[in-house]
Amino acid sequence: MRTIEEIKKEITSAWMHDEVLAKAYGYEVGSEWKFSRVSVENVLCYIVATALWLHERLFEVHCEEVETYIAAMKPHTLRWWVEKSKRFQLGSELPEDSCEYDNSGLDEEELAKRQIVKFAAAMEQRNIVYLKVAKDAGGEKQPLDESERSAFESYVDEVRDAGVSVEVISEAGCRLQLKLTIYYDPMLLDKEGKHLAYGTKPVEEAIKQYIENLPFNGEYRNSELVDRLQEVEGVVIPELASASERMTDESKWKPIAAYSTPYSGYYAYEAKNIKIDYKEYERATN
User: Fold this and answer.
1) How far apart are CA 218 and CA 208, in angstroms?
2) Which residues contact 189 (CB under 8 A, 6 or more apart)?
3) Among 57, 65, 196, 273, whose CB has the most other CB atoms within 10 angstroms?
4) Range of the domain at 85
5) Is the pTM above the cut of 0.85?
6) Is residue 236 in some structural domain?
7) Taking the CA atoms of the chain, what radius of gyration do you get in angstroms?
């Protein structure tokens, strides 16, 4: 995309090559731009260049939105399923022979309230489409309750193609267990991991932020977590001893070798499952 200065340069170049303007202003055709930065001519060219740049930028954004919409709306791709899942409306009925709601009587607030699926992911395995969905409850991902899930599954049956098998997954966040050794700088942290100046626990905060900010159905990576901890003030060496996951409190812990994608689409952060051994880093002396 052209910049404002590039557009302005093209305008001023055309101006200086115009024979009528050259005669009127008394300059040689094709000479360099001779008007000062505060002249009316220069300001006029800048205004026109800015308007053209804004027009091109708006058109570019429009094209991006159209391309994204087409990709999401193309039946019946996985992106289409994600978009359709988020358009589900609790308490609304689909018109007969239609997979689109009639929202003529709903305002934006009521519509947002009914569209309870805020997180969705779709994947296909062995000719089955798996839909992972969750709602937002006070900023936290939560599974659909029994009635919500039943309504959503009925909606899926209505919009799916004949012969397409779809399985809905809406479960509580998978558990993540981490065991770490943190070698810390005693000038910044104490033996419990508290920052000496602020009283906070930056290591725990960094772990919590990393887990909760993973994209829905995003991939957890041991190396990525260590990279984040290396950026924490006061941490000299972060060492991840082990990482494990399980679907529920009743299931067994399964080791994570390097990376994993949670079955439910997200991990539920639980401080009790984060075991950290803080050790003071001893600098070598000559």
Assistant:
1) 15
2) 195, 196, 202, 234, 235, 278
3) 273
4) 78-169
5) no
6) yes
7) 29
